[in-house]
Amino acid sequence: MTRDFQPTVYLLASRRNGTLYVGVTSDLMKRIAEHRDGLIEGFTKDYGVRRLVWFEQHATMDAAILREKRIKKWKREWKINLIREQKADWRDLAVDLGFGMLPPIPSYRS
To answer: Which pLDDT does position 104 carry in this prediction?
Structure first.
């Protein structure tokens, strides 16, 4: 993955089969750091959606935005299938990009 301007569509998850978020950015490394550090107010911060589970780079920002809009309209099942096609184990792909491991998600079962 290049560090230069690279339009990217990405999916974050709170956990395996958890809450999903679709986003687009021109700087994936910076955006992932912002999500992980809770710097972006709103949905991802409120729901703890911080694990990068899928991403796709595009030649232009217009192409990336169009892809993001299409994926946002998809059924949840289709998004899950997209994740499984790339990484069936739902591991945090940000670790492969040099980020540290996120702490385990606490279990609320008694």
So the answer is: 78
Q: Which residues of the chain have pLDDT under 70?
A: 1-4, 87-88, 106-110
Show the CA angle centred on residue 92, arms to residues 80 and 107, nearest 5°: 85
**Cβ atoms of 83 and 51 closer than 8 Å:** no
Say how many residues make up the chain. Answer: 110
Is 104 exposed, middle or buried, given 0-12, 13-18 or 19+ CB atoms closer than 10 A? Answer: exposed
- Which residue is associated with the tokens 């990484």? 87
5 secondary structure, DSSP code: S
Tokens of residue 81, six digits: 């299938």
